[in-house]
Design a protein that fits this description.
Blueprint (H helix, E strand, L loop, with lengths): L1 H7 L32 H14 L11 H13 L5 H17 L7 H8 L6 H10 L9 H5 L3 H8 L4 H10 L2 H8 L4 H11 L7 H16 L10 H10 L3 H14 L1 H8 L8 H4 L5 H7 L2 H9 L7 H9 L3 H14 L4 H20 L17
Helix pairs in contact: 2-3, 8-10, 9-11, 13-15, 14-15, 18-20, 18-21
């Protein structure tokens, strides 16, 4: 009940809310019953608040609009003595008003959004705040720290050096270092010098900068896909046969060579194992892949033109394990080409599973171009 008292005060309800006048305009408080009728809503609120505070009630007055908080404080400073009859009239009127309330809604859009916290999406709440010209709630910096270095670098290039210095200072050191490496040299030097000037930046200023940067990301249109077209096409081609993949990439290279280069950075097939797998991780491949599937893939590797992949795997295993695999591949005999390709695809699937679990990390492809074999 106490949490609702602030919103139920006479001045917060529809009592007419007559404006405050000068001290000489305030009504007299002496006399008998019925004197509450001569009081304005602010005077009644002052009496109720004073009584509740005297009784030890915890009234959330901060929930009132600031204008009403100021009026209440001003009125309380003007009040003198209130006789018992007037007090009883005001309390009885206030109690009647409270008893007559069936449902209370939050005051203002901000309070309404807060009351719906957890029941509407954060995105919807932020859109409502933005439309009303209200700042976002909460700390924007955790979300900004989750942004990639590429995204942050793009934003920093359009901001002042001082704002960029604050952004850099709010990131963890590893991410800040990676971000500096993506900026032009002259800009990076200016930003690092500007960091020395951030000593006296206030927390409020840092919050406003964070909100402004967050709004820039929010202004970007919603995307239908979580990843870019190059990564999506690369994932598709990873599942196709080698002949189809080579044909598609060759045609794409003729039409759009830059896009083709980006797609090839997401291609990971059996032939890429020596270039994309750390030699120390080869034993993990052996443990992750089905033994018979691996043997089938290695048995047909030479005929499929991937002899160097088999040698890479053998070379990075213990002598005993390597000899056992070679013996098994020799015993399996001739394997159909389609079975070999299917086995190679299953080995790659197993490797990707280890990558997703964080057990293996693929070596990124470096350089501006990736050649089509």
């Amino acid at each position: 009940m106490q949490n609702d008292v602030g919103s139920q005060l006479p001045m917060a309800m529809d009592f007419g809310s007559s404006p405050l006048g000068s001290p000489s305009d305030q009504p007299s408080f002496s006399g008998g019953s019925g004197k509450a009728n001569s009081l304005n809503s602010v005077s009644k609120a002052a009496i109720v608040v004073r009584l509740l505070l005297k009784e030890g009630a915890d009234i959330p007055l901060e929930q009132l609009p600031e204008e009403l908080q100021a009026k209440l404080a001003q009125q309380m400073s003007r009040m003198g003595l209130v006789d018992r009859d007037t007090l009883e009239d005001v309390v009885q009127e206030f109690a009647s008003q409270v008893d007559g309330v069936g449902l209370h809604f939050p005051h203002g859009l901000h309070a309404a959004i807060e009351s719906l916290d957890g029941r509407i999406s954060v995105k919807t709440a932020d859109k409502l705040r933005k439309a009303a010209g209200m700042p976002k709630s909460g700390d924007p910096w955790p979300a900004l720290r989750e942004r990639s270095e590429d995204e942050l670098a793009e934003v920093m290039k359009g901001e002042s050096i001082e704002v960029a210095a604050v952004l850099l200072s709010k990131l963890d050191t590893e991410k800040a270092a990676a971000l500096l490496g993506q900026l032009p040299g002259p800009m990076a030097r200016k930003i690092t010098h500007a960091v020395s000037l951030t000593r006296n930046v206030t927390p409020d200023a840092v919050l406003r900068i964070g909100q402004s940067l967050a709004e820039q990301f929010d202004d970007q249109p919603d995307l239908a896909f979580d990843v870019g077209p190059d990564e999506r096409l690369g994932a598709i081609l990873n599942r196709t046969s080698a002949s189809v993949r080579d044909e598609v990439l060759g045609a794409l290279n003729d039409i759009d060579q830059p896009f083709c280069t980006q797609v090839k950075r997401h291609i990971f097939t059996f032939e890429h194992i020596p270039d994309r797998i750390d030699p120390m991780d080869v034993p993990k491949i052996i443990r992750a892949a089905d033994q018979m599937t691996l043997v089938t893939a290695l048995a047909g590797a030479e005929a499929a033109g991937y002899g160097e992949v088999a040698e890479f795997i053998y070379r990075n295993l213990s002598t005993r394990m390597s000899d056992n695999l070679k013996e098994e591949t020799g015993e399996i005999g001739t394997v159909r080409a389609e079975d070999v390709e299917a086995a190679m695809q299953q080995v790659i699937t197993a490797i990707n599973g280890e990558v997703e679990k964080g057990e293996i990390k693929l070596i990124p492809l470096d350089g501006p171009d990736v050649q089509i074999e």
